[in-house]
Amino acid sequence: MNFTGAHILSIQQFDRGDIQRIFAVADSMEPYALRHKVTRVLEGAILGNMFFEPSTRTRVSFGSAFNLLGGNVRETTGFESTSITKGESLFDTARVLSGYSDVICMRHPHSGSVAEFAEGSRVPVINGGDGANEHPTQALLDLYTIRKELHSQGRGIDGLRIAMIGDLKHGRTVHSLCKLLCVFDKIQLTLVSPKELAMPDYIIESLREAGHQVTITDQLTSSISHVDIAYSTRIQEERFASKEEADLYRGRFRLNQTIYTEFCEPNTVIMHPLPRDSRPEANELDNDLNANPNLAIFRQTDNGVLVRMALFALVLDVADQVDKYSRDVNWYNSLRSK
Ligand code: NCD
User: Fold this and answer.
1) H helices of 29-100, where?
2) Of 58, 93, 173, 190, which one is the catalytic site residue?
3) Which of 134, 126, 136, 132 is nearest to 51 (CA)?
4) Quick one: pLDDT at residue 79?
5) pTM of the full predicted structure?
């Protein structure tokens, strides 16, 4: 695809070559993310970061990624502080805000809302999560992490064995990740959820059409025993009619070090898009896994900055100018010394 000026709305926009391109640019961002160097390549550019749903890492890492490229960030969080509460349409809001920004990232509780917003926008729009539909940048950073983790074991993405665990019905991260895996070969997926929270049928069909082997189960321990990646997710409470309904499913699939030692292969990598629900009634990934070197959750969050920098650089067409506007850093930095 031609990245310049493009909206990033769905993971289905990308073919295998596009993904390789994004990952190559993400690799080249490492000296900047680790503060070995700074670049001013986006000096003067403005990111409109509009988050109408709770977010910690997606919102802040989009902002940090833009800052690391030398750009400025304007942020809106929640509906209360915007004219949407006065009845303004997404189209009008987009028309207005795109006059103030060079690129906009947006998260919104309704499926399809970010695409609707993009229709009114005069600048590229990046989907930071639209309801239960998609979260394309999370899928890219997840796959980028999988690629790095497997690379250290001498493996590639083709032939991957992955278990996705939890609320697969409402989890937009797993929806986008499944769609992304459709462009690779011979993937073995085990989809672990309560029956009521199963992966949508259309996604399972597209995985099978891609030639992948899909197993559907509600048993955790047997499904994590022969996988490269165990990808856990949170029960998406905000998509349920009530907290009580979400409570029915919370804590159904708990992974901790004892279960890992007993059932997983020694190299199985544990992933989660975060936030993990650490309340005792949920605790899908126990804190006792924090010492496990195969727990990749914080490598995922670090990789998110690289992937989001890459997307900004590609969409704003500066990927090959980043180094030209760079210099070494002059402050003490803890990241570099680790
Ligand atoms: C996810 C999301 O918001 O979809 N988090 C994220 O962006 N890293 C997953 C979740 O909230 O459970």
Assistant:
1) 30-33, 57-68, 90-97
2) 58
3) 126
4) 78
5) 0.96
The protein residue whose alpha carbon is closest to atom 7 in ligand 1 is 58
Q: Which atom of ligand 1 is nearest to the CA of 173?
A: 4
Angle made by CA atoms 298, 194, 248, in degrees to the nearest 5: 90
Q: What residue ranges define each of the domains in the chain, with the CATH number in brackets? A: 11-135+303-330 (3.40.50.1370), 136-298 (3.40.50.1370)
**Ligand 1 contact, 170 CB (< 6 A):** no
Q: Which of 107, 172, 179, 212 is catalytic?
A: 107
* Cβ 135 under 6 angstroms from ligand 1: yes
Active site residue 37: no
Q: Residue 17: which residues within 8 A CB-CB, separation 6 or more?
A: none
Q: Report pLDDT digits (tens) over 140-170.
A: 999 999 999 999 889 999 999 999 999 999 9
Q: What is the DSSP string of 253-277?
A: S-B-HHHHHHHS-TTPEEE--S---
333 pLDDT band (50/70/90 cuts)? confident
Q: Write out pLDDT tens, residues 107-126.
A: 999 999 999 999 999 999 99
